[in-house]
Amino acid sequence: MGTVFAIKRYAIHDGPNIRTTIFFKGCPLSCWWCHNPEGLESAPAMIWNEERCVGCGECVEICPAGSLSAGESGISRDQELCVCCGRCQETCPALAHEATGWQMEVFEVMAEIKKDIPFYDQSGGGVTFSGGEPLSQPAFLLELLQACGELGIHRVVDTSAYADSQILAEIARQTDLFLIDLKHMDSEKHRLYTGVGNELILRNIEMLAGQGAAITVRIPLIEGVNSDEQNMYASAEFLSSLPGVKDIDILPYHDIAVGKYRKLARENRGISFTPLSKERVAECAEIFKKKKLKVQIGG
Prior knowledge:
The protein contains eleven helices and 13 strands. It is of the alpha/beta class. It has two domains: 2-42 and 102-297, Aldolase class I (TIM Barrel, Alpha-Beta Barrel), CATH 3.20.20; 46-99, Alpha-Beta Plaits (2-Layer Sandwich). The longest helix is centred in the middle third of the chain and has 13 residues, at 138-150.
């Protein structure tokens, strides 16, 4: 059994062709620009959407734990009292309550995946395990990868590569493609913006490349964080030295997750970031192209 917070069908940006993406809860990093803040904590939680609430108060009356209360600013939830039973979500006529995760058994996830097999067969797609960080639930991930392999489904793991190297090596034997984020080559700056250093991540990328794993490296490009020429050249030098790493996805920062942070009542430390110009993004891409790396720029 594991904990997920979303299952996305007909995904076309999480690996090759048409895919089903399973989002795992829990992540050891805390990136300032995270687009899935609901996946950071490992435990499920309930949130309230102020914009949808009609003020009927039914959720307050039905809550068995007494975690909800109504005030001038709307509904308040005491997360320490909340047991995530979902009664408020079931009761709310305006769908103002949402679960940020739920537990599933392997067979339940596989039942969802099997529904999309015709799309994989037609497009050459498959399943992507993302997050959060899928390697934070290694046993659950491994069983799902093995089950997909038995059905001949293409398997992608979208990861930060911040994980025990032995576990990662075992996962690699059941993975057809890794999507790995490379956030910064300077470990102290990496720690500042993600909460962890990059030494383990770089070692794991080197290990996977040395073992012949298929890897696409994704670079979240953020002005004032990692888009300077020094970091771009260092990143290109590192990646071009690795066997088998040829594909680079550059992902310019955008503020698509602003609404999520508001619903979660979380601090959005990326709010001060501004998107790079197309010209600057193209300049960064050119640095990698000069190293004979194949570059794709995301939307």
